Amino acid sequence: MIGRRHQVALALTAVLTAAAACSQQVRQDPGRGGAAGPPAGRGFTLVATGDILTHPAVLERASSDASDGGYDFRPMLFGVEPLVHGADLALCHLEDGAGGTAPLSPPQLAQDLAMTGYDGCATASEHALDHGVDGIRGTLDTLDAAGLAHVGTARSEDESRRPARYRAGSARVAQLSYTFDTAQPLPDGQPWALAPIVADRIVADARAARKAGADVVVLSLHWGTGDDDAPTEDQIALARALTAAADGRRPDIDLVLGSHTHVPQPYEKVNGTWVVYGLGDQISDELDDGNGSRDPRGNESTLARFTFAPPARAGERWQVTRAEFVPQMYDLDAGRVVDVGRAVAGGADLAGVRDRIRDVVLSRGAAKDGLVMGE
């Protein structure tokens, strides 16, 4: 019997085919790959998505989509590609590695993320050391080969001190990444292999990135409690402390992006800075509700989209002039990431999913600060 979600996926075909045309547009971002940035004074749009977890069912789908006996993640990411390619800067989060050694994700994942339009990935998570420092090395080598920037894990002490650096519009953007915990102890003699969440260190690293020339500092935090759609008191307290840190006329951190919670969590403007407590899992197998049944929230997520404008005066912060969230869902039957809002507009029966995500995202009053549901 064809599942309901598979019927929905079939209904989405026309919608996603039309959306694919948008993904063929060439992104005008001369700053990629270290080239000189565009003329001064141009703003930019940043998009970010949640955890990618290559569970066995996900790998099975990518294998069945491949025509060469390997893995192909492009069909899985097809629904998000227009949004990713439409941004000046696109960031993802890898909870699993991508080093090609089982059970790490195959290297095709990094290649396909780059082809989808992503510029870089945060890699700090509690599972980053599951395969030791060799797993970290393999993952980062694979991301390098695909042309994806990365931050949060490191192959050397020197690398651990460097943020990921990007050009977006006329801005120099730095990304930092940290995790609340690790399932494995930090390796002897190599504590720098994974960046833990320590508030003082994060502020110091953000200030160092600013001193090195970053106009915008983006912080990726792997934090919170899994399966909980409300931020913990620790998340809230840390968000307040980090967004309050400032040096001169601008804050040390310009945007906070959260992962690990597996389900969408609220967006909130804290001390004038946008905080996404949890983006949710962009790609993963089903989430158990603790009673042996599937929890559909585990396959729901958001794409965060923030438009930044340059400051009126030198030395002041870049301002977010538009803040948006785009509801997403990973369709388990079809093995596809679905842009829920676009699907609903195309007639698919996903209004309940859209409304559930919207209610959570706006539950801490973000609408009054201008957050809107994007398309």
TrEMBL record:
The keyword DNA damage does not apply. InterPro entries: Capsule_synth_CapA, CW_Biosynth-Accessory, Metallo-depent_PP-like. Residues 45-286 form the Capsule synthesis protein CapA domain. Residues 1-20 form the signal peptide. Gene3D superfamilies: 3.60.21.10. PROSITE patterns: PROKAR_LIPOPROTEIN. It comes from the Bacteria. It holds the Pfam family PGA_cap. Keywords: Signal. Belongs to the CapA family. This is Capsule synthesis protein CapA domain-containing protein. It comes from Streptomyces malaysiense.
